[in-house]
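Hey,

The postdoc asked me to send both predictions to you directly instead of through the lab channel. I've kept everything plain text so nothing gets mangled by the mail client. Protein one:
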Amino acid sequence: EKEARVFGKFGHLIGRVHKLFRRKVHVIKPFPLDPKRFTTYMALDPHPRVDDHALYCSVDRNGTKYITGEVISGGLVKELYMDLIGFEERMKYRIERRLIDPSAFVDDQHKEEKTVGSQLFDLGMHFTRGSKDLMAGIKRTNDALNYQEVNGKMIRSPEMFVFENCPVTIKQLETYVWAENRGPQKDYKQPSGRPVDREDHNVENLHRLLLSEPVFVPMPVYNPGSGRSG
C-alpha cells in the first residue's frame, strides 16, 4: 500500500502473485480419497530442460477442490508415464480428465521423435490442451483462495485446499512473484505486469486445473443383472 501511494505502483502487481495463500488456512493434512466421493483431475507441465511436473486436484460433491498430489519426474516419457500411473494407483484416484501444456503437442522439425503429448497418447494416457490464459488463471486461483475470517473465526471457507504432502506446490505458491522491468535508473523500475517465469510449473498446472472448472462426477454404478452401468 505504501509503494502504491508513494511510487504509484498497483498493489496487485507488487510482490507475491497469490497473496491470499496462507499455510495455516489452505494447507491441510492428507486424508483417504474414496473414489465414490471424489473426482480427480490432473494437469501436466512437461519441459525439455527441467523436471516434468504433474498436479492432481480432487473435487467433492460440494465443489470444494483439494490439491491432493504432485509428481516430479526427470526421466524419459515412458518413465514419466510409469511414475504417473504408479502414483495414481497408490492414491486410488478416479481420473475424470487430464490437461497438459499446449506446447506438449507442438512438433519440432529438428527432432525425429513424436511430441510428449503424442507419446503419452500412444501409451494410453489421453490429454486435453489446457488454457494458456495466464492472467485469467491467476484471477481464478486467487478467487479459489479467497476466504473470510472475523475475530479468528472462519466465516467463509476457501474454495480450495492443499494437502501438506505437496511441498513443491506450496513453495511455488509462496514464491511466485510479479516481475519488474528495470529502467535506465534503478529507482525507476516498474512492474512488468507478468509474474517471474521461474519455478512456476505447478502453479501453472493449478491455473489450468481451476480454469477448466473441475466438478464432481458421480461414479457410474454397475448393475450385473443388466450388463451395463447406470
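Protein two:
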Amino acid sequence: FTPQEFTTISLNETRKGWLAPNQKHVYDFTMEKNGFVIIDQMKDNSNLDTYLYLNNESGAQLQADDDGGGNLNSRIIRELQAGKYKIIAGTYPNSSGQYKLTVKRIEVQALNFGKLLKDSVQAGDMKMYIIDMKSPGTVNILAKREDSSNFAPYMDLKSETGAFIEKDNNPGSNPSAT
C-alpha cells in the first residue's frame, strides 16, 4: 500500500501514483466552464489493470470505465457542466502498479453535411466533432491525411449520450479512416 501523494487534479495536469490491489485514489476536480473532457488512467510501466470512475461532488457515480483506453488503460470522454467532481483511479482486485492520470479538454466543432472541413491534430491529441442528425439515416464520414506524415486517422462514432456506435482504426500508416 502506497499513500496517495496528491488529492486534486486540474485540466492539462498529470498525476502519478501506485495502486495496490483494491486500492483507489480519489482526486477532486473542478470544471471551470462547461465543455468536453477526456480523462485517461494509463498504466505506467507496470501490469496494472486500471479502472476509472467519475463521480459528482456528492459521490454519485456518473460514469465508470475499464478498458476504454485500450491495453488495460481506462478512458472517460464526457461533457461536463461547470462544477466539482471526483475522479477515482482504481484497479482490479488482483492488479497493482504505477499509473498516470490526465484530464484534458477536448476541442469540439460542428460538422455540417456536404461540407469539407480541413483541420489538424497533434500527436496524442483528440478532437470531437458534432453532427446534428435530424432523422435516422446513414452517414459517410471520411478523415484522411493530406501530407506525407505518418499520421493515421482514427475515429469513434458515438451517440449523444456517449454510447458506442462504430469505430474505424486503420492500423499502420493507412492515410484514411471512414
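Summary for protein two, as requested: The two ends are 45 Å apart (CA to CA).

Thanks,
C.
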